[in-house]
Amino acid sequence: MAAKPKLYYFCGRGRMESIRWLLAAAGVEFEEKFIASPEDLDKLRNEGSLMFQQVPMVEMDGMKLVQTRAILNYIATKYNLYGKDAKERALIDMYTEGVADLGEMIMTLILTPPDQREAKIALIKDRAKNRYLVAFEKVLKSHGQDYLVGNRLSRADIHVVELLYYVEELDPSLLTGFPLLQALKTRISNLPNVKKFLQPGSQRKPPLDEKVLEEARKIFRF
Amino acid sequence: MAGKPVLHYPNTRGRMESIRWLLAAAGVEFEEEFIASAEDMAKIKTDERFMFQQVPMVEMDGMRIVQSRAILNYIATKYNLYGQDAKERVLIDMYTEGMADLNELFILLPMAPKEEKPAKIATIKDKAKNRYLPAFEKVLKSHGQDYLVGNRLSRADIHVVELLYYVEELDPSLLTGFPLLQALKTRISNLPNVKKFLQPGSQRKPPLDEKVLEEMRKNFKL
Q1: Which residues on neighbouring strands pair with residue B34, listed in sequence order?
Q2: Does B11 lie at the interface with A, CB-CB under 8 angstroms?
């Protein structure tokens, strides 16, 4: 019997959270080895476990996988969440990359110097409302189906719903005007695996606060 | 018979160049519609062919695909340059994403303010020499084969060789110490499709020089 995937990262969302969401949605139990000090990271580097000396790293199926997208692609393929053919995969990739672009802006918000933060937040809200959410709402409207691609659950639904939770955290009013996305969020949140992951006590991570950010700065030396 | 893919982008490398390389290496003829003016740029914001109001966009097989990775993944799959199974794909993805991280620094370099350029160039050289090139040299050393993955040509070989040309353009001395990568560069460059693409007069784009950048700033009102 295969061992559970092991996730190597610090105890925060960062670039590992979308991987946690996808594994959870796929019903895959996983373990986490938290990097809590610079020494922990150095150890992983010195033992040659990190191809580019970076995390996320996920140990699964006898491999030490790095690079978020490589990891997500592998998981999505393994658990049949990547569409049924190349054309569905192209749609899934397009939507997923759009999610990643907005997600990146939200993720790096906490790194923005305080005097630039207001402008960055305004930009995120504008992009969410006028570029990304509008595009995904349009997809759902175009086919009227319950899922973004291929009339069945795919990674695109999981990634978009995760993003919607972050948008809602930033400003709940951003979701008004996107009824189909709100309905998707509700439907996906009610899937048994996702519902469990959304409960307190799951491996889902809270937003980064200043204290955890300081720890991360020390570990990753930035 | 299907039409040729049509690439929508300015007449520069930017985020489209790796797509040009991959199509060329696959022996696929393509057309280009260059975005040349502020008006062209403005049209993207309202033209629904551009899902997130951005380029690159490639029209092929009845789709309007945006997001570089979605485009590259589709092309790689279609032309059998994406490995033979999920395990080969994950290796290709890992390597490709590492290359994309280094390539991103090259893409952004022309836009950096003049006073920041020396530091950014130093970072690129350091990352190339100490993080990325050693990692890929190690892969080739580990199996002693002519290609990075699966003992046959894949997108990983095309992407790394493209990158090696950019590293060489920046500083040829960076390639010393990486004999296997140099040999790969020579081998791949001699493949008929790649050789043709490397000739003057092909659709390969030159580095962005100050004059062209100034033109772009004016045309696009950057």
Answers
A1: B9
A2: no
Which runs of E-coded beta strand occur in A47-131?
A: 57-60, 63-66
Q: What distance in Å separates the CA atoms of residue A113 and residue A120, rounded to the nearest whole number?
A: 10
From B51, B63, B96, residue closest to A135, measured CB to CB: B51
Q: What tokens appear for B127 in the block?
A: 């990352």
Contact A101 B51 (CB under 8 A): no
Does B104 contact A at CB distance below 8 Å?
no
Instruction: Please tell me what DSSP assigns to residue B79.
Output: T
Q: How many residues does chain A have?
A: 222
B45 contacts in chain A (CB < 8 Å): none
Report pLDDT digits (tens) over A69-81: 999 999 999 999 9
What is the identity of the amino acid at B14? G
In chain B, positions 118-147, which contact chain A (CB-CB < 8 Å)? 131-132, 135
Task: Name the 3-class secondary structure at A220.
Answer: helix
Cα–Cα distance for residue pair B72/B16, rounded to 1 Å: 10
What ipTM was assigned to the predicted interfaces of this complex?
0.96
d(CA B26, CA B5): 13
- Residue A32 β-bridge partners: A7
